[in-house]
TrEMBL record:
InterPro entries, A to Z: 2Fe-2S-bd_N, 2Fe-2S_ferredoxin-like_sf
UniProt entry tagged with the keyword Oxidoreductase: yes
Gene Ontology MF term list: iron-sulfur cluster binding; oxidoreductase activity
One Pfam family matching this protein: Fer2_4
Top-level taxonomic group: Bacteria
Extent of the signal sequence: none
Protein name: (2Fe-2S)-binding protein
Annotated keywords: Oxidoreductase
Length: 101
C-alpha cells in the first residue's frame, strides 16, 4: 500500500478487505486498526458532537478516545482493534457529514 501518510507502511502482512464509510480498503490482516487506517491515508476518524472538530488517533493506547469508530454498529476505539476480514467501519454519529481526510 503506497500512501502519502507520514506513518510507516504496513506492507509485509497479507491484506484483507474492510469497508470504511462505504469505501473498500485493503488493510494488513492482524494490524492495529488505527495504525492501518492512518497508513492508508485516513486522518479523520470522527468529529466532536458539539463543534464538529475533526479527531483521529492521539495516544494509540486506549486512553484518549479520539480514535472512536463505529464497527458493525458498535462505537469502539480503533486503537484497541485488530484488522480482520470484512469489518464494517464508519465514522460514528455522522449521518450525511462530509469526508475531511
Amino acid at each position: 500500500m503506497k500512501t502519502v501518510s507520514p506513518f510507516l507502511e504496513l506492507d509485509d502482512a497479507p491484506t484483507v478487505a474492510v469497508t470504511f464509510d462505504g469505501r473498500t480498503l485493503d488493510l494488513p490482516e492482524g494490524a492495529n486498526l488505527a495504525a492501518a487506517l492512518l497508513a492508508a491515508g485516513e486522518g479523520v476518524f470522527r468529529r466532536t458532537p458539539v463543534s464538529g472538530a475533526p479527531r483521529g488517533p492521539f495516544c494509540m493506547m486506549g486512553a484518549c478516545f479520539d480514535c472512536l469508530v463505529e464497527i458493525d454498529g458498535i462505537v469502539r476505539q480503533a486503537c484497541m482493534i485488530e484488522v480482520t476480514e470484512g469489518l464494517q467501519i464508519a465514522r460514528p454519529h455522522e449521518a450525511g457529514a462530509e469526508d475531511d481526510t
